[in-house]
Amino acid sequence: MNKKPLHIHWFRQDLRLSDNPALAKCAVNGDVLPIFILDDCNAGSQEPGAVSRVWLHHSLLALNKSLNGALRVFKGNPIEIIPKLISETGANGVYWNRCYEPWQIERDRIIKLTLRDKNIECESFNGSLLWEPWDILKKDGTPYKVFTPFYRRGCLSAKEPRIPISPPDDITLSNKKIGMNDINDLELLPNLRWDQEVFEGWDIGEKAANLKVIDFIENRLHDYKDGRNFPSKKNVSRLSPHLHFGEVSPNQVWYTASHPKYMNSTGLDHFLSELGWREFSHSLLYFFPNLPTESLQTRFETFPWIEDLDLLVRWKEGNTGFPIVDAGMRELWRTGYMHNRVRMIVGSFLVKNLRLHWNNGLDWFWDCLVDADLANNSAGWQWIAGCGADAAPYFRIFNPVLQGEKFDKDGIYTKQFVPELKDLPNKYLHCPWTAPEAVLKAANVCLGKSYPHPIVDLKQSREAALKAFSDMKASN
DNA sequence: CCTGGAGTTGTCCTA
DNA sequence: TTAGGACAACTCCAG
């Protein structure tokens, strides 16, 4: 009996068939057993949040469909499951695409050692980054800490990213009945179904992700450079969750956007550099595994953060009394997403005006975002807090009134998420506390009742933050 | 080792 | 009304 060899493809954050290097390798080597393992054992406090799990559920459903129902799913510790699976199925080996969270790197290292010790084939591939972190280093061999040289000197002068590869066309899927094959058994959905509304606005899975890439590049990229700053415009790609789960690879996005037929010279470079930021965040996380919890600038250890649960709750719920901040926080809660410009505004407000520790913001984003990603989330918060390697200068403090007037002048975005202010004239929309009583009354706004008073004084809190910063510097 | 240029996204004050 | 400079030096990076 001439039995074809069997290999396992372990899906993780590469939930797609096309441009999947590990799957391609697996498919040419014989039969493929596609598996997914819900690992709630190794992540510690960095396990995915509730919203992220719902996305994962839907993404796995889509993947399983394109695998004709052949995906086998497991719950538990991959360190135990994979060797067991290999001995039970007689598989020759296992392939996967690399993940870069410190806990996944450590887990995968153990699995690799264990399997190679038993002479079992085991190989990992790059399916999630344009450049591996260890390939982008300064001339002295140390990692970059500043974005611009990282991207221009590092990435752009390095070897070109892999050209996307086709999905395996002659894949033979194993029909071994092992593990579970009902995604529902992973219990990724919440018991109380709060998720219906959040996920109304998202099409999940490889097919949807690819359509979105094309739609963005054809219809929204031309005005990306400026349009991306306006939350009511449709000029951002909203690809982040698809990239996080690997429904589409950065290589596919990079080369599709760069295709000569689109010729988007102005928007293109800016958009590609955003993919560069994604690379930079992953590089920082790889070389500084404490990025999610500790300020990269150690002098921030003495920074006088304020602890105030009430202020934090007001921020989370979008009841700060600053309309664009509240719009952003409510957008996050209602849709699992927040426009990038608004992420900066609410972030600056949290760490500078409320002066709450950036960890609070990171944790809340982690729980609420459909695109929650350890590298991007951590690097973003360190950037806005001014404590990162390449961070906004501390004195650069966003004023939510000015930001609102500049980037949501007509109030379309703010009024969508803060409807109690929908009848307020735009002149007062971003600073309702300055509106004359009669104007408020005509707009059915009663400060302190229908909409909160501002929870901080912008001027005073700004000055206090600057003072705290200069005190910190003086003490170091 | 030294040197010089440069650094995602802002705000406020002054002339 | 608007444009330019101050803010705060510091670290990073390449030559």
Mean pLDDT: 94
Radius of gyration: 24 Å
The assigned CATH architecture of the largest domain is Orthogonal Bundle
Give the helix proportion (percent range).
40-55%
Enumerate the spans where pLDDT stays under 50 for 5 or more consecutive residues: none
- How much of the sequence lies in strands comes to 5-15%
The span between the termini is 74 Å
Which homologous superfamily in CATH is the superfamily of the largest domain? DNA Cyclobutane Dipyrimidine Photolyase, subunit A, domain 3
Task: Provide an overview of this structure.
This protein starts with 5 loop residues before the first strand and ends with a helix. It has 476 residues and is of the alpha/beta class. The mean pLDDT is 94. Strands 1, 2, 3, 4, 5 and 6 form a 6-stranded parallel β-sheet that branches. Helix content is 47%, strand content 6%. It is globular, with a radius of gyration of 24 Å. The chain folds into 3 domains: 123 residues, Rossmann fold; 119 residues, Serine Threonine Protein Phosphatase 5, Tetratricopeptide repeat; 178 residues, Orthogonal Bundle (DNA Cyclobutane Dipyrimidine Photolyase, subunit A, domain 3). Helix 11 crosses helix 16, helix 13 packs across helix 14 and helix 15 packs antiparallel against helix 16. It has 21 helices and 6 strands.
Structure described in brief:
By secondary structure, the chain is α/β, with parallel strands linked by helices.
